[in-house]
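Summary for the funding panel

The consortium committed to producing paired sequence-structure records for every protein in the target list. Below we show the first two records in order, beginning with the earlier of the two.
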Amino acid sequence: MTIEDYYKKLAPKLTNWLVATGSPYAEACDLVQDTFVKIWSMRDDLQDDESAVSGLVFTIARNLRRNQIRDSKREELVEDISAESLGARKDPTPASDVEYLRKRLDQAFAQLPPMLSEAYTLFQIGELSIKEIAFQTGVSESLVKVRIFRAKERLKEILSDLHVTF
């Protein structure tokens, strides 16, 4: 497959995964572009194995996002220090229902062990196959299935008060 073929196949999945795991859509699109720029620079060294490239793409995007989050936290800290020194205060705004649900989901995912959270989001949001997740995480396919099941069950428990019946 060519880099263009990988992009067509993986970019939508990667964008969905990034948005679902907390990145705003515009930032997710930027991260996808940055990821494929890195893949392009590595094109001569890539294996012609779809699972390997898929895992590499998600790993690069995850690392780029971590760097971006780390940098934004530094910027927020500087802004907070500046605001405090000037005596300015940020007024909280009431959250909409969507913001409330997003916050609850973020809190629920934060309560999951990282291995469960990673497997669940790669499967549900990143739309990776069990085999691709196993390759990327370096564990067996059966362990990936167990992690996805446990994550789903734990999220049901944590968010049980939100359950609505029709």
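The next record, for a separate protein in the list, is shown here:
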Amino acid sequence: MAASTISEFHTAVGQFINYRIALEEQESERRLYLAVPLDIYKRFFKYPFIQTVIHHNQIPLIIYDVEKEAIAQWIN
């Protein structure tokens, strides 16, 4: 795992958790997703630690294809 990638992941997870808490207070019916580029998902999200963090924090994902400018997968 590259140091910058893991650092960006930690920042994204922290922001996601903060936004989810804020959203629960204001608009509890909305669902928040973490958007991840397809190449990063394929390369980085395969690691067991990353999968554990996503599962433990119940973070739904939107995987998007940067080249096609389209959503590739929704993971709840």
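Regarding this second record: The mean pLDDT is 92. The helical segments are 3-26, 38-44, 48-56.
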